[in-house]
Design brief:
This protein has 431 residues and is of the alpha/beta class. The chain has 2 domains: 310 residues, no CATH class; 104 residues, no CATH class. Helix content is 57%, strand content 6%. It is built from 20 helices and 7 strands. The protein starts with a helix and ends in a 6-residue tail after the last strand.
Length: 431
């Protein structure tokens, strides 16, 4: 049964990831990955009409992976495949680490608690899935194989090319080294240097500065939303309370470095709710040490793993549903004119060969353009001037921008479907 529990946890996470939900930060990596694959590191966003010169492309590795998956599996299905594989790695590593701390029963049940609390990160395909997998692998290394801590260096180097969550990984490693194994301080130092081992090298800090200073980050919107702004945050908090209660009330079994890291992650989760999944992964380890339950039957676990694997494959074969409107995005793209669009719709325009005014990566754009675009997405009157930058407007019917567009005299309806509306901007109507 040594492998059946990690395998079952991995397959359960993969099945959730294979549901096929495309996030707003997924599709933009594909066209940039095409450029990277052909030897060109972009210093601006070629599919945007707004100025983006001087952008630093640190996550070029993620773009290359997303482009390769998109190309290999015939479109968005490839991104779901990548999501499922990363989720399987993350939860397989978690279950493997937990069973070393306790046993099969604890590992399986606590992995389930973490999965329930992390469903938004696992089920919605996006670039953050890289951090979920690599954070779990780093935890497994620190908790189970301290003698091989030098492996953190290549892991951090890889992570730094994929997602900004590498900063959380460095913070975790720092807590471990400073509060548990100070003799490994050289490993921490080399790992910090490894985080710069990406195409932008010494420009890396400027990239992170631009990300943290975006309008969405400062306002706490979208992926930067604080705890308590989304209904599912209650589930995240409940999962965290369960894990902490088990670790403290039945222990305490929390090591000093874990306590310091958990306090930091808790504070960051209050500020940015999606950080909560990292908190859950770490909290599961002391919870496993403090809890003992009967192990499930090995054959039952193995059977569940097989069933979940079959379900995952079936979901991947089915593929995701259209997250926006490929037909209307294609119509807008064929005009060759700039399009103002909701996030996913705009990315579909780009994938169809078209141009947008502003879209992801939002940190590449000027602050004034970011603010105007975000205000337009939020349906605020201050975002109305954004329409003047485009020849067409493509919106989701139910979005804030979509509802406001129906009352905008400057917009002439060109085409529609049950999900989206495509408008032409009438210059005669004025601004």
């Amino acid at each position: 049964m040594r492998l059946s529990v990690p395998w079952a946890a991995a397959m359960l996470a993969a099945a959730v990831a294979a549901l096929g939900l495309i996030g707003s930060d997924a599709l933009w990596l594909v066209p940039l990955g095409h450029l990277v694959a052909h030897g060109h590191l972009p210093s601006s966003i070629p599919f945007a009409s707004a100025p983006t010169h001087g952008w630093h492309d640190v996550p070029a590795g993620a773009q290359l992976v997303f482009w390769a998956l998109y190309r290999a599996f015939g479109g968005m299905r490839g991104l779901i495949v990548g999501q499922a594989v990363a989720a399987a790695i993350g939860f397989g590593a978690l279950a493997a680490g937990l069973r070393r701390e306790a046993g099969d029963g604890e590992a399986l049940l606590l992995s389930l608690v973490v999965l329930v609390g992390s469903i938004p990160v696992v089920a919605v395909t996006g670039v953050q899935i890289f951090s979920l997998a690599l954070f779990s692998l780093l935890l497994l290394l620190l908790e189970s194989s301290p003698g091989r801590i030098w492996l953190a260096v290549p892991l951090i180097a890889l992570w730094g090319n994929l997602h900004g969550g590498v900063l959380a990984g460095l913070a975790l490693l720092a807590c471990y080294v400073l509060f548990r194994r100070p003799r490994d301080l050289p490993v921490l130092g080399v790992s910090v240097i490894a985080a710069f081992a990406n195409p932008e090298l010494w420009h890396t800090p400027r990239y992170y500065e631009s990300v943290f200073r975006t309008v969405v980050a400062r306002r706490g919107e979208g992926l930067w939303a604080p705890l308590g702004t989304a209904p599912f945050d209650l589930v995240l908090v409940a999962a965290a309370v369960v894990l902490v209660a088990i670790a403290v009330v039945r222990g305490p079994r929390v090591r000093l470095w874990e306590a310091v890291a958990l306090l930091g992650l808790a504070a960051e989760t209050v500020h940015v709710a999606r950080t909560g999944s990292s908190f859950l992964f770490l909290a599961a380890y002391p919870a496993a040490r403090a809890w003992r339950i009967r192990a499930p039957r090995p054959r039952l676990v193995a059977l569940a793993a097989v069933v979940l694997a079959v379900l995952t494959v079936a979901l991947l074969v089915k593929g995701p549903s259209d997250p926006g409107s490929q037909r209307l995005a294609g119509l807008a793209a064929r005009t060759g004119r700039p399009v103002l669009a909701d996030a996913i719709l705009g990315q579909q325009v780009v994938l169809a060969g078209g141009r947008v005014w502003v879209d992801n990566p939002i940190d590449a754009f000027r602050r004034s353009d970011q603010q105007q675009y975000i205000d337009w997405l939020d349906g605020k009157p201050s975002g109305a001037p954004a329409v003047a930058h485009a020849a067409f407007v493509l919106v989701d019917r139910t979005s804030h921008a979509g509802r406001r567009a129906t009352h905008d005299a400057r917009l002439v309806l060109v085409a529609s479907d049950k999900h989206a509306l495509l408008y032409r901007v009438s210059r005669a109507a004025g601004s």
